[in-house]
Write a structure and sequence with these properties.
With 168 residues, the chain is of the alpha+beta class. The chain contains five helices and ten strands. The strands form two sheets. Strands 1, 2, 3, 4, 5, 6, 9 and 10 form an eight-stranded antiparallel beta sheet that branches. Strands 7-8 form a two-stranded antiparallel sheet.
Length: 168
């Protein structure tokens, strides 16, 4: 895995996030959790390269984002879809996702967690967070589809600066 300049990122993140999926990880090697996400994006805000991701408060990873300044995004490639399925359907509260999936965690120089299997990894410093609110949905259909009838709590949105990137 080699470190790359953020300006060298060439992924089509609509495809990478929406179809390949990503792991969102927060915490440090001794204590972290990861989850699969397929909602988010990459862009430029406040004169910084940023990601935005969404985590429901009932997810175990949410607890780690409250205690940590950073999170990482790991893109594992289509060949590792089975890892995403486990990390997206089981809670780290009662499942050792590393043992279950064969993920190989690696520490960054800041102590955050990326994975040996990752084809692309982004280390990000959380700049802003906010809970989505029902009254702010201009499309009531979206709210009904994703949040009513027991679908779960409203997501917390995070905007995080990309501070480091690695690729295979």
């Amino acid at each position: 895995m080699k470190q790359i300049a953020i300006q060298e990122l060439t992924d089509n993140f609509i495809e990478s996030i929406g179809k390949e999926w990503m792991l969102v990880t927060a915490g440090h090697i001794g204590s972290f959790n990861t989850m699969t996400a397929s909602w988010g994006g990459v862009g430029f805000l406040w004169n910084k390269p940023v990601v935005f991701v969404f985590i429901r408060p009932e997810r175990y990873t949410y607890e780690f984002t409250k205690k940590n300044e950073y999170l990482t995004l790991s893109f594992l490639g289509e060949e590792n879809k089975a890892i995403h399925k486990i990390c997206g359907s089981r809670s780290g509260r009662d499942t050792d996702k590393v043992a279950e999936t064969g993920l190989k965690p690696l520490p960054t120089k800041r102590g955050n967690v990326i994975y040996e299997q990752g084809r692309l990894q982004l280390e990000c410093r959380i700049l802003y967070k906010q809970s989505l609110e029902k009254d702010n949905f201009l499309s009531k259909e979206l709210y009904q589809r994703w949040y009513e009838n027991g679908h779960g709590n409203l997501h917390q949105m995070y905007v995080a600066e990309i501070v480091d990137a690695w690729s295979k």
